[in-house]
Amino acid sequence: SMQLSDGCWGYYGAWGGPDITGWAVGALSLCGDTYQSSIDKALTYFISIQQADGAFVPVGEWSVANSNTQGCVVWGLLEYDESIIKSGTLKNAYDMLMTFMLDDGSFAYKADEDYGNSYSTVQAGLALGVYENGSLNTIEKRLPIIADRRATGIC
């Protein structure tokens, strides 16, 4: 397992953070309850690192609230359970993500930037798409391949 003892996922088990953990939660949530204990550890990790304003701040070199990290976490949580973001424990995470949106619809990397960042806009766009249109879990009936994979044990 690439999940670290604090509940986050990392690169080769060496170091991790909220970005990678968001991706992992989003992907593993598509496999039903198979990885529930790992997802539960990740949720505890997210709760432990979320700041009062809703931000998830990575450690180290990128230790600043940013839309990339926020988008990854919000996307993963929405894929897992939309209610966590829309009305639950981590509701202000989405609001924090939206503070990075600029007038032209792009997303700045950091709050003090007034220009869009393409990577930030992609990460935030994924989260916004799921927020507005539902996760793969909620539209499973329109995507029978997911149900087929669950039934055959691929996930």
Low-confidence stretches: none
User: How far is the first residue's CA from the last residue's CA?
Assistant: 15 Å
**Global shape:** globular
What is the count of helical runs? 7
Q: Give the class from helix and strand content and strand pairing.
A: mainly alpha
If strands are numbered along the chain, what order do they take across the biggest sheet? 1-2
CA gyration radius, whole angstroms? 15 Å
Q: Tell me about the biggest sheet?
A: 2 strands, antiparallel
Describe the protein.
The protein is mainly alpha-helical. Helices cover 49% and strands 4% of the residues. The protein has a two-stranded antiparallel sheet with strand order 1-2. Strand 1 and strand 2 form a beta hairpin. It is globular, with a radius of gyration of 15 Å. The mean pLDDT is 87.
